[in-house]
Amino acid sequence: MNKKNIFAEINFLNKTAVVTGGGGILGEAMVAALLDLGANVAILDLNYESALAVVNKNNDLVGNALPVETDVLKTESLNNARELIHRQFGFVDFLVNAAGGNHPDATTSDEKPFAEIPEEAIRFVTDLNLLGTIQSCQVFGLDMQEQKAGVIVNISSMNALRPLTRIPAYSAAKAGVSNFTQWLAVHMAMTYSPEIRVNAIAPGFFITDQNKFLLMDEESGELSARGQRIIGHTPANRFGEPGDLVGTLVWLLSPLSNFVTGVILPVDGGFSAYSGV
Ligand code: NAD
Q1: How far is Cα 162 from Cα 89, in angstroms, rounded to an integer?
Q2: Most exposed: 59, 75, 170, 239, by fewest CB within 10 Å?
Q3: Does residue 206 line the site of ligand 1, with CB under 6 A?
Q4: What is the tens place of the pLDDT at every residue in 170-180?
Q5: d(Cα 252, Cα 212) in Å, to the nearest integer?
């Protein structure tokens, strides 16, 4: 690589990106960065209104945005989205799998011990995070197989490295996402093309709608004991901001990371490095 042109490598004009969960808090920041760099971005979300809101917030940026109501748990819905994207933009170059999250019913508490977590709650969380990621890779991976090029970035979690207390299904599902990321990186490179790369980002702790009730007191807004422990264990001494993920995402999608595949990158303010001592 010519070092003088290092930043010219980060230009996504004429590239098409799919961001699942693109209407969510972290997805929105990633969509905005990709549009800013000139990509065409399909925002796939179960909640069409939130996907549309992201388009409306970013319509002054360089790239083009397409909101698509999609359920990542239904192959037919993903196939329909793919057809629409082909008509609008052409083949998919980048896939970012940000649809995911926990569910309060799948969280243990004094009132709800582990043995009483309902089957539906466990299934909801494992399906949303793991099955949804695998199916999206199956469908949009086809474009990459055909073009013999492409980049996938999955969104894993700190829980994949070492599980936090209280969220067993989410932790197990994200460990599955990390493991699957490595599997797919090897499979794509060795079966179709070394120009197809698959990596994951493992975000640290970001305050969002899903985890607010665990990290903060809902009424006072004060940090919960759990929230305080997380900050105490984060050398950066703060929660992440959605924009903190963007640099890593852009680097993973760009040719600057051409020789990087099958890695799970923590973006966590040092949480995973700190032993607590
Ligand atoms: P979010 O709830 O704001 O966004 C998730 C989006 O996914 C929502 O817009 C939702 O409508 C969409 N979605 C839900 N089910 C879907 C389905 N079946 N098909 C398509 N879309 C669906 O959550 P977020 O905090 O932005 O999280 C994004 C990703 O980052 C998730 O995978 C989450 O597990 C992961 N993550 C978040 C944190 C954090 O601290 N917030 C930390 C680590 C990992």
Answers
A1: 40
A2: 59
A3: yes
A4: 999 999 999 99
A5: 29
